[in-house]
């Protein structure tokens, strides 16, 4: 049992981790198109709270979500030190406003730990698993659920 | 694999559309008596190409009809039947049906459209009638058809089997492109009797030989019943990769039919040229050195560099390139970005201390000019001539006149006027509606017309022209017009207009667009006139256009549609509300004014109304409506935009009006659900985003009860 078959071992996934309101989260780096510093955005009237606004991404209008607010945390008071993660999922491009980006690391896919059942707080439905790396506890985000606003509003 | 078949299928449908266009052009030329020798051949070729493509994709109904149509046309082409009015009328039916079938096939629907059977039997009857016509003697027939085919690639009836001399020399590109001359030559054998000789003279010595190049050339003599087009088809995939020379001679004319192919064969075929008028079809692609010469074959093929005029045998149609719309949109976006970038650059240069240097400003000025020229050119790429739309209208006229038993002719003008593709598509329904109305209710029946001293055939004029950066489309008929006093009476009766109101002539005419007039019980003697005209007006308004109508009793009715050139750019008023910049489309705004306290009246405890020209209108505070701030308590000195809604007006309060400008409309990445009141966004000169607002939607979502009926305002004013 000391030899592992190369083919059986699941591929590593590369993850990008970032901080939101003192908590570390992560998404698959394959979703990430680019990282940008925060710039003043245009607010959208009558939009849900978690919609931070729209910014000009090289001629395209990019909607930026306040990730903290989306996760049920206190809204981010954005400054130039904040980061917008431009992510693409299901053909949609969306910006995620976070406090700061911390790391890119690769881990075997099966080392993610299922989420313990702790009831369903408002932010909990967006977290699919948790990781522990050294002493850090990193939450794996369900990007689809984050972006899929219609379903969330209907629920 | 299936993806590439789908691509080929797509391009087949696109080509069919241009074939149909050529077909309709040809038929209308014949109808107007402006045809020449070539016209009927063009018509025939168009049908033939559609048939060929349809057969390849196994679209049975299409092949069936095209084949029948082709046979009927053959009678005209071979001069057994005259292309008279009756024939053209008959041919227009299958022409329309081909269009229907293509649309059906495009949606993978294989059912037979309405009238398919009758059309087939009509064609059959025509073919039968003309089959017994005397046939000219073989030799003159051939000579005549050869003479006609001088420029064309298709060949008339083949009484004798012609011989094709083919010279085929692949260039160095043929192997890298994955083609194999062997298969090309093999497929020649399928056409008839072939003798092929290979010329190996150009093979270099082994040390100079590049194994990826082709050094061979072939000469073939083909005895076949096929026509030139079919022979040419064999070389379809390699025609750009070789020197190809196909010449045809009739067996009857070739006294010395020489099967012994020698190296001086080329000169021999030259000498044959005197006897046989058919010019050799020649495609040359000398090498890969970059000089591109193009085949004269198909007009819709992309040509990047055309030959000098003297080399072009016939005046070819303007060369065009088919491009994916997404790519054009990408270009539009990028150029928009360039324009913005230029503005940012200009702004930052202006704020630096460099500004004593004049040359940089001159350069900057040039840059800005170039950028805006570039933007205009790109917008023009999206533009298309209205011709296709007009052709579809010709069909609407034909069909409606058939069902109403009225003789109506459509005269078009300005077919080459170009409008944005989306606008053209959006115009189809409104125009159809107006034309149907005009024929059904406007134009009188022939007996009535001659009684009034009008020509029996009614006329509908359809014109398009550019006018100060917009497009005007005019639809006029010479029918009975609309009785104005009747309209007014009706409007007063239904309460759309105040009993005492005095309306100008144009105001009366435009009452037709009010929704109240769309009920079926409108004006009795022109029953149904105006049905759905409010829908027409709405769809035109949705494209940022306007529609007007003028009617003269007994003389006819004129509809005028005024449209923007493109939907990608909009005229808007840039306003500021609570430090946010917004754009309000100019088409919504009737006028702007500054409020005075004396205009404002209080209704109830807090509802405020504004009194403009003796009418009270609701006040909407834009800042409050968008949720930026609390409702203002006093409006003295505020800027107000008077917004027209379909049937009401309201006053929209903004903090400041900045400028009027054209804005490039960008869609919001629509992943945050609906955004009420916001129709899009644009990027301003400083790179910031301004939302484009839909004021009507804002009112609907904020204060639906505050709507006033428009005519109460407009008709009293």
Automatic annotation (TrEMBL), chain A:
A Pfam match: CheW
Checking InterPro entries in the record gives: CheW, CheW-like_dom_sf, CheW-lke_dom
Q: Which residues form the CheW-like domain?
A: 12-152
Q: What is this protein called?
A: Chemotaxis protein CheW
Q: Which organism is it from?
A: Pseudohalocynthiibacter aestuariivivens
UniProtKB/TrEMBL annotation, chain B:
Biased region (Polar residues) positions are: 259-275, 282-296
Task: List Phosphohistidine occurrences by residue.
Answer: 48
What residue spans carry the region label Disordered? Answer: 131-156, 254-308
Q: MF terms per GO, please?
A: protein histidine kinase activity
HPt domain location is 1-105
Span of domain Histidine kinase: 360-567
Catalyses: ATP + protein L-histidine = ADP + protein N-phospho-L-histidine
Q: What is its EC number?
A: 2.7.13.3
* Primary enzyme class: transferase
> Keywords for this entry?
ATP-binding, Chemotaxis, Kinase, Nucleotide-binding, Phosphoprotein, Transferase, Two-component regulatory system
Q: Pfam families attached here?
A: CheW, H-kinase_dim, HATPase_c, Hpt
Q: What does this protein do?
A: Involved in the transmission of sensory signals from the chemoreceptors to the flagellar motors. CheA is autophosphorylated; it can transfer its phosphate group to either CheB or CheY.
Q: What is this protein identified as?
A: Chemotaxis protein CheA
This protein's species is Pseudohalocynthiibacter aestuariivivens
């Amino acid at each position: 049992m000391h030899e592992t078959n190369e083919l059986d071992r699941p591929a590593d996934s590369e993850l990008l981790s970032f901080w939101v309101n003192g908590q570390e989260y992560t998404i698959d780096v394959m979703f990430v198109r680019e990282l940008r510093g925060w710039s003043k955005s245009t607010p959208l009237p009558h939009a849900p709270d978690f919609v931070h606004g729209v910014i000009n991404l090289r001629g395209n209008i990019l909607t930026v979500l306040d990730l903290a607010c989306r996760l049920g945390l206190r809204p981010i008071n954005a400054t130039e030190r904040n980061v917008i993660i431009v992510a693409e999922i299901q053909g949609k491009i969306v910006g995620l406003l976070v406090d700061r980006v911390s790391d890119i690391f690769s881990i075997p896919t099966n080392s993610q730990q299922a989420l313990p059942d702790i009831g369903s707080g408002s932010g909990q439905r967006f977290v699919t698993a948790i990781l522990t790396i050294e002493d850090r506890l990193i939450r794996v985000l369900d990007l689809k659920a984050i972006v899929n606003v219609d379903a969330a509003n209907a629920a | 694999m299936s993806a590439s078949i789908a691509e080929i299928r797509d391009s087949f449908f696109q080509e069919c559309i241009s074939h149909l266009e050529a077909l309709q052009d040809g038929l209308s030329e014949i109808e107007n008596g402006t045809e020449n020798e070539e016209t009927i051949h063009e018509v025939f070729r168009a049908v033939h190409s559609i048939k060929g493509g349809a057969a390849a994709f196994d679209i049975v109904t299409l092949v069936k009809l095209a084949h029948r149509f082709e046979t009927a046309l053959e009678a005209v082409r071979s001069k057994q039947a005259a292309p008279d009015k009756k024939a053209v009328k008959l041919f227009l039916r299958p022409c329309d049906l081909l269009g229907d079938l293509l649309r059906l096939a495009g949606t993978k629907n294989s059912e037979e459209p309405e009238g398919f059977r009758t059309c087939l039997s009509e064609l059959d009857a025509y073919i039968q009638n003309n089959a017994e016509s005397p046939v000219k003697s073989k030799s003159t027939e051939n000579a005549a058809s050869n003479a006609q085919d001088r420029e064309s690639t298709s060949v008339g009836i083949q009484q004798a089997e012609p011989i094709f001399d083919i010279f085929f020399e692949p260039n160095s590109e043929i192997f890298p492109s994955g083609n194999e001359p062997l298969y090309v030559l093999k497929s020649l054998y399928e056409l008839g009797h072939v003798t092929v000789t290979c010329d190996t003279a150009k093979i270099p010595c082994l040390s100079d030989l590049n194994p990826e190049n082709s050094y061979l050339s072939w000469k073939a003599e083909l005895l076949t019943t096929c026509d030139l087009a079919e022979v040419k088809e064999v070389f379809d995939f390699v025609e750009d990769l070789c020197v190809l020379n196909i010449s045809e001679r009739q067996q009857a004319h070739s006294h010395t039919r020489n099967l012994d192919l020698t190296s001086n064969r080329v000169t021999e075929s030259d000498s044959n040229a005197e006897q046989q008028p058919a010019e050799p079809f020649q495609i040359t692609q000398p090498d890969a050195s970059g000089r591109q010469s193009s085949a004269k074959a198909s007009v819709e093929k992309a040509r990047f560099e055309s030959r000098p005029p003297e080399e072009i045998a016939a005046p070819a149609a303007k060369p065009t390139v088919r491009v994916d719309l997404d790519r054009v949109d990408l270009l539009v976006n990028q150029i928009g970005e360039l324009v913005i970038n230029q503005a940012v650059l200009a702004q930052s240069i202006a704020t630096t201390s460099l500004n004593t240097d004049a040359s940089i400003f001159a350069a900057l000025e040039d840059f800005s000019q170039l950028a805006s020229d570039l933007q205009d050119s790109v917008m023009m790429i999206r533009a298309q001539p209205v011709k296709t739309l007009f052709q579809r209208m010709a069909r609407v006229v034909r069909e409606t006149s058939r069902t109403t038993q009225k003789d109506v002719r459509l005269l078009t003008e300005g077919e080459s006027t170009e409008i944005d593709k989306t606008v053209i598509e959006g115009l189809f329904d409104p125009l159809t509606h107006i034309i149907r109305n005009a024929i059904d209710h406007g134009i009188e029946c022939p007996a009535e017309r001659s009684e009034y001293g009008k020509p029996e055939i009614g006329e509908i004029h359809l014109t398009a022209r550019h006018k100060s950066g917009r497009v005007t489309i005019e639809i006029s008929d010479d029918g009975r017009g609309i009785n104005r006093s009747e309209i007014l009476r009706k409007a007063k009766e239904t309460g759309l207009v105040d009993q005492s109101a005095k309306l100008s002539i144009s105001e009366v005419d435009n009452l037709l667009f009010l929704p109240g007039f769309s009920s079926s019980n409108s004006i009795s003697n022109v029953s149904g006139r105006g049905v759905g005209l409010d829908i027409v007006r709405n769809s035109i308004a949705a494209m940022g256009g306007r529609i007007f109508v003028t009617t003269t009793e007994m003389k006819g009715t004129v509809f005028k549609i005024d449209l923007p050139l493109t939907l990608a750019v909009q005229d808007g008023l840039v306003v500021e509300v609570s430090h946010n910049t917004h754009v309000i489309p100019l088409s919504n705004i009737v006028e702007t004014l500054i409020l005075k306290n004396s205009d404002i009246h209080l209704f109830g405890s807090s509802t405020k109304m504004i009194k403009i020209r003796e009418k009270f209108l609701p006040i909407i505070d834009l800042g409050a409506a968008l949720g930026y701030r609390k409702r203002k308590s006093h409006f003295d000195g505020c800027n107000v935009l008077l917004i027209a809604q379909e049937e009401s007006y309201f006053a929209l309060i903004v903090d400041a009006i900045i400028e009027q400008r054209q804005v490039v409309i960008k869609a919001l990445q629509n992943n945050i659900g609906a955004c009420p009141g916001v129709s899009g966004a644009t990027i301003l000169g400083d790179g910031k985003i301004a939302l484009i607002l839909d004021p009507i939607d804002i009112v609907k979502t904020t204060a639906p009860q505050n709507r006033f009926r428009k005519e109460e305002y407009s008709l009293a004013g």
